[in-house]
Amino acid sequence: xxxxxxxxxxxxxxxxxxxxxxxxxxxxxxxxxxxxxxxxxxxxxxxxxxxxxxxxxxxxxxxxxxxxxxxxxxxxxxxxxxxxxxxxxxxxxxxxxxxxxxxxxxxxxxxxxxxxxxxxxxxxxxxxxxxxxxxxxxxxxxxxxxxxxxxxxxxxxxxxxxxxxxxxxxxxxxxxxxxxxxxxxxxxxxxxxxxxxxxxxxxxxxxxxxxxxxxxxxxxxxxxxxxxxxxxxxxxxxxxxxxxxxxxxxxxxxxxxxxxxxxxxxxxxxxxxxxxxxxxxxxxxxxxxxxxxxxxxxxxxxxxxxxxxxxxxxxxxxxxxxxxxxxxxxxxxxxxxxxxxxxxxxxxxxxxxxxxx
Length: 357
Description:
Layout: H1 2-15, E1 50-53, E2 56-59, E3 65-70, H2 78-98, E4 100-105, H3 112-122, E5 125-127, E6 129-131, H4 144-157, E7 168-172, H5 180-196, E8 200-203, H6 208-217, E9 225-228, H7 241-253, E10 257-260, H8 271-283, E11 290-292, E12 298-301, E13 304-307, H9 323-334, H10 339-353
Parallel strand pairs: 3-4, 4-5, 6-7, 7-8, 8-9, 9-10, 10-11
Antiparallel strand pairs: 1-2, 12-13
């Protein structure tokens, strides 16, 4: 029941918003020399170290400190849109002053132009996504080819008719067992990844091992797949924290990355449990297979911004883009995680996920 309640709360919350994110360092135009400016260059003509962002392209070594699972909410209501814009830009600027360079928006968004506007105003790189979040009823009959067609259109033609290309594929499954439509989505993502060399980000509150198996069987490069929200206790299918650590080890053994975001969201993961997961996987030699993020998103209540989970956590309103650098880094140090490992979580591992040889 707790699992179902948390899922429904999150799903209903995110269905009420549109999403997007930040700006580019030294952007390189997506249009190649001598080409009609109304057309995009073939993505396969770019090297494996060139990453599309909302404002152009960057080299992977320009990503810097990166949060690989974020959102920017851009509602259609003009008043709320302005409030969201100001909120996102102000906090991204605060995070940038602390060292943040890049965020990955894994909406998918209904307003990619809004993401571009926030990116330009804040000076933070934003990598946009293609793919799907939790599937709606009308998507349950979609085939692998249907999902592939939608992703390829975003990649080849630009998202929503713009010159903005996705730099990551987002997929999601609600819970176990994974439904046939969700399986089709994951297979499609693997196929598109093989063709265009894009990382895959999954919503994996439960079943990351099962998700990875589908991706692997479909031919995905597991080193460029990362699984989000895996530390949420209500997704552990009754496993203890020690059993969950062993379960997660099966994922990192195959080269994939775990994305943790419940820092400060102690309603979903006890702080000691999250610390133990990170400490133990680090001891086992997997500190190059973890990343730290915050998964910021929000909606509006009575005309005011409400951050997701703010009413269930003591510092819920403080969990914004700048929170990882202000609060998570000190928390990790306090738990005995060395600076070199923290740098991997925030810099080296995100860059590796997005770099193709």
